[in-house]
Write the structure tokens for this entry.
Amino acid sequence: MLKKEIISTNQFVWMLFMIITSITVLEIPGLLIHSVGRDAWLAVMLAWFFDVLLAIVYAYMGLRFPGQNFIQYSVTILGKPFGRVLGLMFPLFFLLAASNLMKAIGILLSTMILPKTPMIVILTLGYLLIAYALKKGIEVVARVSEILSPIYLISFILLFITIIPSVKMDSLKPQLAEGFYPIISGSLLIWSFIGICIMMAMYIPISNSPSDGFKAKFIAVSLGAFVISILVTFSIGVFGSEQAGNMINPGLQLVRVVSIRNINVRLDAIWFIIAIGAGILTSANLIWASSLGISQIVGLSTHKAMIYPVTLLAFVISMTSFHSSRELLNFSLYVFPLIGVFVEIGLEMFLFIMALFLKKRG
């Protein structure tokens, strides 16, 4: 008998929080401000509301099909042939998200800290760390997340407190100058990245309290939305919407302007290291979900046989895609939101409707 890996509700919350914040903070704030302008924080709040509604569906499906993630109950609802095809889309989506996130981390490291280090070296070290962590098991990743995620949250709170004197509130006015359309379109952009926390469906079957799935998701997405909304608001308040919208990483630029007692304190390296650590840990979670999902599709008894192949595939995708930050940003702005909305909302709502129509249960 294989030992079943179990995570606590507290770990559930912090793992989801890390996934939400690390992906969005490293890739999205500048794009969101560029698309929405001063109303970026309203787009985040609207995305939060939609995501909470969607979390109800995921939590319900987790209880309707106890012990099964969405890959497994895809087969239960639709049968083996079609269910496996549809279920495979979830692990492939996680694989895509992990490889893109690692590419973004590699670009940031090579641009900000290691300009003379080849991309292949940066990505190789990152993926070796991921493979090593996943071979130890998701419980180890969960325990590390339980330690690092609060530190990540505290780093944001300290940043926000120290940056308040530099925020010019007039830069945030007027609100709704362009109407509601930019807010709605911006909410779909940010929602597609926040929505990667559909990972809750992978965590519910291994949670020691599956009924707490919605509570864990609600706490995590609320904390994540708070951090993102304050980050984009302060970025606009300090730099203005036009300048902030042209920045690759406004959060890092905010850290660089932090001043304590009129002495410039270079905290960017510390904050950057924490953010990169959170990003690598998030990629590990995504690759774990992809490995587990693919192993369940092909009928393996354990997902650990898939960890190295999936990690290697993610490495290849990261190395061969997006030769510049501009290409990655264009993909994140124009392509990934369509894929994200289709998988995160479309596929799950289809499964939800079919489960009710066909009266399927676990």
Q: What stands out?
A: The CA atoms of residues 164 and 234 lie 8 Å apart. The chain has a mean pLDDT of 87.
